[in-house]
């Protein structure tokens, strides 16, 4: 247990009293070792685990990038950045990824951050443009590095690592045990911390099966969702087109939902995740993009509309529920003639769905989009004050608020939305009039 005053102050920011076992082990190893391989399940707090011990290695007097973090997806990059910001270290951080405005990123990098986070493609692009100096980077963190390789970032990662001549610490992080480390990373006798057997989904997860009479399993999915009610549920498909099709068919049946996959515009992906996080959407139809690294708390159910080809993908999907001592259920929808994959030698317990099920209730929340953010000097307190005074909302009628650089999102009780929009349509917030509308 660490009594470091700086660490304790950071833990207070996260409303936790102490590090978990994985974070303790990571703190000790990363503080001493040069090369570390950290394997731990999604949702176990890996980001804080690898950030805390590198604080002592960052020099406030050096106004250049000292730590580079590469992650496979935009969402994971943003999530890592949010953890660093919440730590309140006083050291600048920047986040770069495809779909983000390049001009804004270039401008931000003119005042170099101590910690730079990004997707391999975008960081390689910045290196080719020479928009920042990498001469002082001595710490490299590759989060979900195996996923980056799966997504085809081998060349970009090899190019980036090849440029970093002064590395004295390499930290590789993964949520899976079955991994190969490429030679270009030059990992020499790494200290291995393996917490993948410490499943966060352990006893809290149960597996059930719904048999479908039809190859097109949409009717069984519809009945299952009606049976589950308005609980937070991820529905996994194997392809982008399938996710969109399933989402549309559910909408046609009166089930409000949204879809999520890597082919969407970045702003649409962010907006969808925000609405799912804050309870404006109960059902999210997605590809495996949502199985790892995303900040989606309290998912009650996982549904495999399509079964993945590997046990690793199956495990990661299931890892979105029953996390950190919670309970949850993973459902498999199976055509009655479909053969179970080899990683499921025994069929799970069958769930017989009753007939005459009612549609689940609509979500109690909806999301407002505000055309201003941090760069407009807006914060959560401003938004709450505005909605309470001008929109006549009670504080308990305001839910999760997320303030980005140039826009914000706030959940409010759905039955109050029309009234609020009328009341605030001509009002100013902090002397400025912002566009405020329902987020779709």
Secondary structure: elements and pairs:
Layout: H1 5-13, H2 21-32, E1 35-39, H3 46-51, E2 67-70, H4 74-87, E3 93-96, H5 102-109, E4 115-118, H6 120-129, E5 139-143, H7 145-150, H8 154-163, E6 169-174, E7 191-194, E8 205-212, H9 218-228, E9 233-236, H10 240-252, E10 258-260, H11 266-277, E11 283-286, E12 301-304, H12 311-318, E13 328-335, E14 349-350, E15 365-370, H13 380-389, E16 398-403, E17 408-413, H14 417-424, E18 436-438
Parallel strand pairs: 1-6, 1-7, 2-4, 2-5, 3-4, 5-6, 8-13, 8-14, 9-11, 9-12, 10-11, 12-13
Antiparallel strand pairs: 15-17, 15-18, 16-17
Helix pairs in contact: 6-8
Shape: globular
Proportion of residues in helical segments: 25-40%
Q: For the terminal residues, how far apart are their CA atoms?
A: 46 Å
The number of strands is 18
CATH superfamily of the largest domain: P-loop containing nucleotide triphosphate hydrolases
CATH class of the largest domain: Alpha Beta
- Tell me the Rg in angstroms: 23 Å
Report the portion of residues in β strands.
Answer: 15-25%
CATH architecture assignment name of the largest domain: 3-Layer(aba) Sandwich
Total number of distinct structural domains: 3
The tally of helices reads 14
- Strands of the widest sheet, in order across it, are 3-4-2-5-6-1-7
Sheet with the most strands, sense and barrel status: 7 strands, parallel
* Residue runs with pLDDT of under 50 for 5 or more positions: 198-202
Oligomer: single chain
Label the structural class.
alpha/beta
CATH fold node name of the largest domain: Rossmann fold
Mean pLDDT: 89
